Amino acid sequence: MDSVRKEKYALIGMGDFGSQLAVTLAKKGIEVLAIDSSMEHLEEIKDVVERTVCLDATEEKALESQAVEEFDAAIICIGDEFEETLLIVTVLRNLGVKRIIARATTTRHAYILRHLDIEEVILPAVDAAYRLANKLSLQDQFNRLELSSDYEITEIRAPSKFIGRKVGDIRFREEYQVVLITIKRIETQPHFWGLATRDVERFIGIPQPESVIEKDDILLLFGNRKAFEHLLSDPESSFPPPGEEG
């Protein structure tokens, strides 16, 4: 039986980001060619990755000697030297590399790279800021769809008094005169070979009595405005801790 072909990537620039990516890929069984103009950077990872080469990636002949066009992708991991990144993009194109992934440190740099038809652009700092902003903005977020002068569908962050409780124990209809339609949950999933994460919204469907409300859940509710005001203003003491009802 033929052995399964290993993926292989050529990584250019072994700073903090590049070396971490190289090590992460190598530990996942991927063949990594690590390229940097500094032998010192390569020394730190040489025992982990498949191969390291010290060369100037802006020199076409030097890069051509490594047959980078045969790899599944070339990933430019350089951060601050954007001019160098552009030169390497040109070299890789000249060598016939079909898939080029490039790191950008600013949105302007990302914009330029995408206009050069680099579809896969990594923006680590911007992605991290976006995730944090999304997380923080959920704290007081209310989205409303008015159905009439009295009734609406409202999206609210789960009050702390509900967290850890079963849906059936909260008695939305009896206690608050609202209907729980569904629960939107923000889940953090690994992204880009585990080096980064991204927040993904997931609806849990029709909540069952045994469904447990978790921290940061978003509740989609139907009811009238006064009912929502009661729910949101109701003191936490009106609910005993889980397991102590009645």
Report the portion of residues in β strands.
25-35%
Please state the second-level CATH architecture of the largest domain.
Answer: 3-Layer(aba) Sandwich
* Helix count, DSSP H or I runs of 4 or more residues: 9
Would you identify the CATH H-level superfamily of the largest domain?
A: NAD(P)-binding Rossmann-like Domain
**Helix and strand pattern:** EHEHEHEHEHEHEEHHEEEH
For the largest sheet, list the strands in their spatial order: 3-2-1-4-5-6
Radius of gyration: 26 Å
Tally of extended strands? Answer: 11
Domain RCK C-terminal: 140-237
Pfam families: TrkA_C, TrkA_N
Domain RCK N-terminal: 6-122
Protein name: TrkA family potassium uptake protein
Can you give a write-up of this model?
- This protein has helices spanning 16-27, 39-43, 60-64, 82-94, 107-115, 124-137, 167-170, 172-176, 225-233, and strands spanning 8-12, 31-36, 51-54, 73-76, 100-103, 120-122, 142-146, 151-157, 179-191, 196-203, 218-224.
- The chain has 246 residues and is of the alpha/beta class.
- The chain folds into two domains: 8-122, Rossmann fold; 132-238, Alpha-Beta Plaits.
- Strands 3-2-1-4-5-6 form a six-stranded parallel β-sheet, with helices on both faces.
- Strand 2, helix 2 and strand 3 form a beta-alpha-beta unit.
- The longest helix is centred in the middle third of the chain and has 14 residues, at 124-137.
- Mean pLDDT is 83; it is low at 137-141 and 236-246.
